[in-house]
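A quick aside before the break. I want you to see a complete sequence-to-structure record at least once, exactly as it would be stored in a machine-readable document. Don't worry about memorizing anything.
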Amino acid sequence: MVAAARPFTTFLGEFLRDPAMVASAVPSSTALVERTLSGIDWREVRTLVEYGPGVGSFTRAALRHMRPDARLIAIDTSASFTRYLNAIDDHRLSAVEGSAVDAVQIVSELNAAPVDVVLSGLPFSNLRPGMGDTIVWASAQLLRPRGQFIAYQFRPAIRSLLTAVFGTVEEEHEWRNVPPLTIYRAYKSE
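That is the input. The structure line, written in tokens, reads:
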């Protein structure tokens, strides 16, 4: 029972330390994770970069879907979350303490470009002015043609950022999460 409580305890501790950046007191629901990841063609994914992985609700699910030769780079500013993710025993996972603003450099240092999918749980509505633009532009640089940027959010701040960089943005709502969230998908043109 203690092992089951550990992700929640870690998540709650980080939420209490920095509620603006964690944005929710509970990890993402299974329904949100499944719905968000269902739009990915896993046969095509060699590199996935995740921003704000927290305790790894999406990370673990993505690893279950990914090919044996794929890579997942999880970038989080929290040392606690990064330590927690580094305990996952999977050679495909690299958990890095850092900022999504530096994603191009991080991915380059890991020799993991180009990226097929960028998955973001960052609360774009809570980021400092200009930071969201920088992250979205950096993500576009990382993505291969037809690569996809996916973000799950409870406020629409990211929509205009994605539209400015990618053009068309798809969105769908997942009500079976606390709080309910919108999933945004944008694709890099060829």
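Two observations worth writing down. The first helix runs from residue 2 to 17. Helices lie at 2-17, 19-22, 30-37, 57-65, 79-86, 103-109, 131-142, 157-166. We'll return to this after the break.
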